[in-house]
Amino acid sequence: MATAKVVKDEASSATGSGIRTGAQYLAGLRDDREIWTQGQRITDVTAEPGMMRGAHTLASFLDKQHSEEYQDTVTYVAEDGLRCAMAYQVPKSIEDIRARGSAYYEWAKWSNGMFGRTPDYKNASLMAFSAATPFLAQGTKGPGGDAMAQNMVNFYNDVRRNDKVLTHTLVNPTVNHAMAASGKFSEKVALQVVEETADGIIVNGARLLATLGPLSDEIEVFPSTVLRASEENIPFAFAFAIPIATPGLKLICRDTYDHGKSNFDAPLSSRYEEMDAVVIFENVLVPWERVFMYGQPELCNQAFGTTNAVVHMAHQVACGKLAKSEFMVGLMCAIAKATGRDKDMYTKGLIAEVMQMTETVRALLYSAEAQAHEDQYGNFVPLRGPLDTSRNLYPKMYPRMVEILQLIGSSSLMATPSEADFSNEMANDVEQYFQLTNLESRDRVGLYRLAHDVAVSGFGNRQALYERFFFGPPGLMASAYYDIYAKDPLTERVESLLASN
Ligand SMILES: Cc1cc2nc3c(=O)[nH]c(=O)nc-3n(C[C@H](O)[C@H](O)[C@H](O)COP(=O)(O)OP(=O)(O)OC[C@H]3O[C@@H](n4cnc5c(N)ncnc54)[C@H](O)[C@@H]3O)c2cc1C
Predict the structure, then answer these.
(1) What is the pLDDT of residues 399-426, one digit of tens each?
(2) Is the pLDDT at 178 greater than 50, yes or no?
(3) Residue 287, pLDDT above cutoff 70
């Protein structure tokens, strides 16, 4: 049996700082984690082609937390005196909510939203869970009972003080959709508790999908989207967190989209490969101190909603999507300007559609922040409705933005010689034949290679898939949106009109 060894890395807190450097983060990844790609087990993710540049990019973002330019925006000084990432601050006012929003937006701008899974996403949810102790204190199963709330607070403090990078996995693989629709999981594949011991629970099975999993310090394994509250689902009802380097935990990666090209040739995939992986648990022992919920499907179903974790995550997401949408507008305007089509009504109309989507995200974000309010735990939370609207709209908006970029780019997205063609015997030809009204050849090729990485490449297509699905199945999200929408007064207006006939 494999046992999770929970190692507390005191490196950064020993220096009096709760924010790590990039070098500290990279050093932490060099452990005996079991990561598989292309039939091989990776020995060091920080040196693995196809993965290392994403790790080094994230390391450079962690370094930015230390720079004078960003520190006041992306960090705060916690009550224990440590400077920590802003997402950990428990918000007590609208100003705190706005400060969180500014930090999320700044983090997202560093990659123009193309490194989707920056650590602030998970940090936001962890803050919400640990600040909702009365909710978790309802957990009664297992030794320790309502100590599970304390487990969460301890985990929050460990992650906050050591600036750990988390991933999460929420979804069991589906073997049969009819079975899934009836609220059941396959015992053959779904992650489940197979044994309880004095030390913890032993889990076996698989989960998908962990974005950034191979490059994270720890993984949160939280409740699947919907658990029918029945006896048979008790083994599937839990929330816990363990280090990635836990024996028995195996990650199988998808193909990389970083093919080792230069920043010029692949401006995004050479920098922002964040890697997704299916997670397999082979009889992993999760220590009780890392179990936050167990054996209570109804509690698990309420977890993200009642703690407001979903709202804080949606806040981080909306800020990121704003940065990403602004970038899409900038890219399209740059193409329109370069080609002289910034005077063309058709092109302007297409880009205006992207501008309107961007302003919709901005308006929803500002609405949510301006209407932030105190929650049942005495903390502040942005208004949920506008953020729910944003997270339901964006899976449709982003693929449309990509489609518009393809319409504007057309064959120019294929007319993309490589950087090397500017220094070989083709150099004179590419200098001559790739020029545009307002751009030299090299700049034109650079611009369209960027557009290609957004709208055509494997990296770009994975981005679109990510936007469609990472926050959950669109149908389920829309159904939940319908359920909580304040529709009764609207229906009553219709009924009142009909009653007056
Ligand atoms: C790039 C990427 C990154 C991701 N990162 C993470 C991550 O870090 N952590 C994590 O936990 N998850 C992650 N996810 C997984 C994500 O949560 C799931 O993709 C999402 O919840 C949908 O589940 P599924 O993929 O199993 O789709 P399925 O449930 O197989 O659904 C497939 C399609 O069928 C539709 N469908 C399903 N059931 C029904 C039904 N009963 N009636 C009608 N239509 C139905 C769905 O809406 C969807 O369009 C990621 C996904 C992607 C694509």
Answers:
(1) 999 999 999 999 999 999 999 999 999 9
(2) yes
(3) yes
Q: Is there an atom of ligand 1 within 6 Å of 470 CB?
A: yes
Residue spans of the domains in the chain: they are 2-305, 308-499
Three-state SS for 35-98 is EEECCEECCCCCCCCCCHHHHHHHHHHHHHCCCHHHHHHHEEECCCCCEEEHHHCCCCCHHHHH
Q: Which of 131-140, 266-275, 429-438 has the lowest mean pLDDT?
A: 131-140
Confidence grade of residue 229 (pLDDT, cut at 50, 70, 90): confident
The terminus-to-terminus CA distance of the chain in angstroms comes to 72
Q: Mean pLDDT throughout 365-383?
A: 97
Inform me whether the pLDDT recorded for 7 exceeds 60: no
Query: What's the CA-to-centroid distance between 150 and ligand 1, angstroms?
Result: 32
| 460 CA from centroid of ligand 1 (Å) | 18
* DSSP letter, residue 435: -
* Distance between Cα 172 and ligand 1 center (Å): 10
Transcribe 349-386 into DSSP letters.
HHHHHHHHHHHHHHHHHHHHHHT-EE-TTS-EE--HHH
Residue given tokens 């050093």 in the structure block: 27
Q: Of 54, 104, 487, 112, nearest to 256 (Cα)?
A: 54
Neighbours of 221 (CB within 10 A): 25
Protein residue with least CA distance to atom 13, ligand 1: 209
Alpha-carbon distance of 385 to 88, in angstroms, equals: 23
Q: What residue type is 501 in one-letter code? A: N
Cβ pair 129, 307 in contact under 8 A: yes
DSSP state of 174: P
Within 91-236, residue ranges assigned H as helices are 94-109, 120-130, 133-136, 147-162, 177-181
The CB of 171 under 6 Å from ligand 1? The reply is: yes
Mean pLDDT of the region 254-258: 98
CATH number attached to the domain at 308-499:
1.20.140.10
pLDDT over 70 (residue 218): yes
CA of 208 to the centre of ligand 1 (A): 9
Closest protein CA for atom 34 of ligand 1: 473
| Closest ligand 1 atom to 468 CA | 53
> Can you give the pLDDT at residue 401?
98
pTM above 0.85, yes or no: yes
Instruction: Write out the H or E segment, with its range, that includes residue 221.
Output: strand 218-221
Q: Is the CB of 178 under 6 A from ligand 1?
A: no
Token pair listed for 492: 């009553």
In this structure, the residue with its CA closest to atom 41 of ligand 1 is 181
The CATH class of 2-305 is mainly beta
What local confidence, expressed as pLDDT, does residue 141 receive?
61
Q: Is the pLDDT of residue 302 over 50?
A: yes
